Amino acid sequence: MILVISLLILLMLVAAIAAIFFKDLINAVIASCMVSLIASILFYFLQAPDVAMAEASIGAALVSAVFIIAIRRTKRYEE
Amino acid sequence: MSLEFLLAIAFGGSLFTYVLGKISSKLRESFAVLISLTLVVMIVCLYGKTIEKSFYFGFLGLPLILRTNMLSWLFAIAISVLGSLSVIFSLSYIKNRERADFYYLMLLLINAAMLGIVLSGDLLSFFIFWEIMSWSTFLLISYNRGAALAAGMKYIIMSTVGSMAMLIGVISIYTTYGTLNISEIAASSNLASSGYILSILILFFTAFGIKNAILPFHSWLPSAHAEAPSPFSSILSGILIKMGTYGFILFIYVIVGLNKFLNLGHGVLSFRYILCILGALTILIPTFIAVLQDDAKKLLAWSTIGQAGYIILGIAFGTSVSVAGGIFHFFNHAVFKGLLFLVVGAVEYRTNGIRDLNSLGGLIKKMPIAFIGALIGICGLIGLPLTNGFVSKWLIYKTLILEQSPFLAFAALFGTWGTILYSYKLIHNIFLGQLPEKYRDIQKSPFSMQLPIIVLSFAILLFGILPGIPLKVINAIGVSFGLESLSVTLWGIASETGALNTINLFVAILVGCIVVAFIFKAGQKAISVGQEDNYAAGAAIPKDKYHYTVDFYNPLYRMITPYLKDFIDAFYMKLAGWTQNLCSGVRRIYTGYVGHYVMYIVLFVALLIFIQVKWSLW
Amino acid sequence: MTFLHDYIYYIGAFGLIFIGLFIMLVKHNLIKVIIGLSILETGVNLFLIAVGYISKGTAPIFSNSAVESERMVDPVPQALVLTAIVIGVAVLALALSLAIRLYHHYGVLDLRKIKEQRW
Amino acid sequence: MVSPVLLIVVPLGLAFAIPLFGFISKRIVKYIPIAAFAFNLAVALLLIPEVLKHPIVVRIGGFPPPFGINLVAGPVGVLFSVLIAVAGLLVAIYALTYIKEGSKEKYHMLYLLLLTGATGVVLTGDIFNLFVFFEILCISSYALVAYIGDRAGIESAIKYLIQGAVGSSFLLIGIGLLYGLFGTLNMADLAQHIESASPISVFVPMVLIITGLGIEAAIFPLNAWLPDAHSSAPSSISAILSGIAIEVGLYAVVRVIFTIFGVSSIFMFLVFLGILTLLIGEMCAFSQKNIKRMLAYSSIGQIGLIVFAMAMATSLAVTGGLFQLVSHTLGKSLLFLAVGYMIYRSGSMEISSLEGMGKRMPLTSLAFTIGAFSIVGLPPFVGFPSKFLIVQAALAKEAVLFTGLIGLVLLGTVIEGAYFFRVVQALYFKKGNGDSERNEAPVTGLIPMFIFVTLIIVIGIYPKLLTDVLNSAASEFLNRIDYIRSVIG
Amino acid sequence: MKSIISLILLSVIALGIAISLDKIPFGVPKTKIGDYYIDKGREETGAANIVTSVVVNYRCFDTLGEVTILFIAAIGLGAVLATRRKKEKREIEPASLVLYAGCRFLFPLILLFGAYISIHGHLTPGGGFQGGVVVASAFLLAYLGCRGRRVSETGIKTVESLGGLVFIVVGLVGLAVGGHYFLSNFLSKGELNSLFSAGVIPIIYIAIGLKVGSELTGVIDHLVEESE
Hints:
- The complex is a heteropentamer of chains A (79), B (618), C (119), D (489) and E (228).
- Chain C has 119 residues and is mainly α.
- Chain C has helices spanning 2-26, 30-52, 75-106.
- Chain C contains 3 helices and no strands.
- Chain E contains 8 helices and no strands.
- In chain E, helix 7 packs antiparallel against helix 8.
């Protein structure tokens, strides 16, 4: 169990680090979306289902949608 | 007559004048004159009274106290008289200028604040009135615009520095003695260590020195005096800077006490001696800088600094004669310098703001009253016998010689020579010689300008012939300080080391004048020639350039100019420049790039944590 | 293994926090900075929940009376995080709308070039 | 008896209701903030006599303090509430005609919420609740800075937002650490337990919390957002940001340091930080050409002075600091309000474009002059007694170090005097280049300025009006034992 | 260069936090407040979900602040993105049929789901926030699928306002009748684990749900509005 969690956390950190390096902002947003998703899974493991729901719906879905809309209205690539 | 009533009239009157000005200018002017004359009458009524009374509400738990005694009265009467004369002078001077309401408001406000300063019985109200005076003076100096703005800035910055020093001093006294009442502090100041008193004195004397323009702090004065409206220049020079003198007297003789003061430091390094040296330098250098000036008001301004040196010298020297001389010289300086500024103001008024000595001349026939005023004024300034300046300078010289201080005596005498030079230049270049073409049709100054000039000229002669009148008051002040009493007669001072009797002088000079008049009559008549009647090989002469008053004292200039650079002022300007550069440099930390700002935040956290982890300071 | 058990959540949470801060420190692109902010906020939330966790606890919900005997995790941090998440989304939405407007005005999102307000 | 909770709830409810009022009539919307703050002012003034006897502790939802959220209406809280209500009321009157562009409804809602957040911060007794209200304050200020939507406003708002968001994340981490260490969020309860932990482990949350709050309070390295935001916002908002928002941030910092942590060892550091903030603020203001930026930097300087005073942590010093805070609120709000219409008339923020305003807008210029004199600390205006108290407190320490530091403070005052006097000269004594006919600010602009001027002069002449409240407020800050006892019981 | 400095600074902070974390062991109970809520929460509030009882009752002032923040964000977004130009009818490229049909099918279901989550907040995981977000995501979907359809702004504003007002009014009623405490739980607690229980909690949570849903919808609406 703990190994699975460690793996998830590793994945989460890798996704976060990946967000640093992506030049395409959409990719970076997806990476951060992934961070949120894994965080919401972790919340579930930490016995916080309410927060897990909120994080999944807000952090993963809504924020990413807002990011993508914003990127559509500005510039997609980081120079 | 209660003092708060007097101050209420003074302050309320100034505000009410402003309100009236919105209705009608006539009403405003008559009300301003009325208020200032009322103040004179009220202060005259206070003569000889000693009142000390706390005001009915305090400030932050500190009582506000008003009081009057002989010293306050002398200053108050000088303020109110000169103030009312300059209000009268302003009637025509300021008539057609814009913003006259503002002018009167500030003029009366400054007078009221100065009255507040001399009537306050505790250091807190002293400081409050001092500050009100400072900022209203700033507003009035800037009134003329143009070059006046820079002058005003210079004044207010130096004045703020002084005020801040004073604020520290006031509060330090409060934390040490638990009171700000001047008489209570005076009673308990004997207990303090001389180190503490010295530091307090340095703080206060910075403030007073800046206001009084003694040497290292003088640089605001010339431009401020020159650029202010002339009636206000006369107040500025006659009274306002003397608030510093009042402070010096208050601290040396009332609060610290003469004995303690004389014992601060030893020998050459004693506080008193240093103050005397500063006074002497303040006489010497500015007097000769005054000779170099081409602007009438600037010349008078530098002369003011020089004369302030005499006053400080007299007060700081600390014998009963010298103190009497110093205080009397303050009084006289208020009279004759006030007069001279008014005269220059009258000339400036008629010539549409020309004060350049190189382009004036020959106004004697056009403005005779002004000429007589100027003549009497410079006689007083030089200290010719039968004018009041003679008596006060005589008192100062006498002490210096008797007490065997050759350098100080030399400085005082040498300063007088310089005074003669620039005084002559002033009167010659304005009134004597030939009248330039453009001033052919100049009018006499209006009556409201002549009246103050006449009154002040009369006062100079009166106090010169009968010096006993003010000296009696001054003697009473000296006695209240615990100095020896002088035996004052109506005609002067009787003492074993050499009496002063103006009656003898009067007779001697009268005889001398008659003799000179006969010789003059017996001589040849001078032939008068037109100004353009010059031979220059047929070429046209540019009038301005070859006006004969240009480069007056040229040889002397060439001799002394290299030694008379105002390096102190240059240093201040440099300091201001450095500050400006530093300020522009500092604000570069706000680079505009958010990454840096976030970096500052992270840096702050990291730094604190690092310090705590490394050294466990907290 | 005990090390992992004791610290892995903290490592994850602060890993996210520092990665988020790092992005905000070194990246010039405004959207990237806002992404960093969102990662930072996720990390903070994870940390708060981790503080409230109790080993072998259950979720603080009495769905039926049988579970009463068991230990429950601390509900307070969960309540705080619910609040914090909503605050976070509010800030992000506002930031993105500002970014859109900024792009309107400047035509770039490079913060190094958006330096009209300075000194 | 009126409940202090009304101070928060009524403006909040009215803000929520504004869209509904908007359906009835667009016109009445702008009067709602006035009504709300008039109500708040009345409530806060009614509370004063009661609060001076003993602080009122309000339990939200009826749960006893460590378990529920509670409000603590002590002298400090009510003092700040009065201040917020006064400034809010006057600036709301000002905004009646000043706000012309954009959606007015949104402006008034955000304005109400901004000040509600400020009231909440000063009244709450729970640190997470403080965070929430702090966010209300911050987020509505981000939105209001960007309200006009021009280049400068948007740029400043995004910069402000990024720094503020980093700060609130730090704050939240700090709160989380504290909760982990002590298992409670109530400030009094935290204060009670704070000594039980080792100093080093408490230090990190303290630094994080101070940093998070210090960003809003504009303490030196954290204040880079301030000049941008204050100069780009609409002037009425600048007045509130400068007069209320940073003061409330400072309140939070002081509350956290004095009451929760009670660390006296960090005070010396804060004294130096205050001096540094003061000097840097004044020096930056000195070379500004933009009037609103100059005022903003001057606010930094004033905040430095207040931090300096508070960090001396004697009763006199804290009283002086609070007095300075009040005088800064009055003076700086007045300055921004006055400058608002001047900029509106001249169309530029350059100081040079304000030349000759003394003639065009005499009353507004007079208000500016009085505000400037008050900020510099000249008698008989309110800035003087406050500066007097601070200097007195520093000298009462009887240490050479503090005498030297007060010298630096007064050096800062000299610089401040220099740039304010320069502007006053520009207003009155320089010829304007534009038209010079009289064009005064409208009455709704003049009324608040007039009230501010009256307050400045009246309190300046008779400071006893305030000193009672300030003294008990200072003792509330300094006596954390009493605070804990009054909350926990 | 800059990243190296940043890394150094961050590692210093990490060190400090590690020192502090050393005193906060993971997974160990540390709080009396949490225990109090778990012990007394059911009697005092009547909600089975303790998190809900904390959010809506013990710490409901935070929640009030939180919906206010979302409200501010929605208004602020509107103020920032407000456009002065007239909205003209534009040609909008219709979404693909699959998306369109899917959206129309899913939209009511998602709304229902959101309502369920909101209403059962005191019994099961979830509550007003989560429900509100789900409702908002339904509208997001509608924007994706049925382009050109707009929610009426007036409606959003009304719901937003009403939600907030219900919250405040419930609180004020509590102040008036419920023992003089703002937001006190003055209704009967009912039976644990039944829908009509826990006093004012469901009412407030529904209000929160409506408010959060409408605010987030408003946010999305403002963002999408101009994206073409």
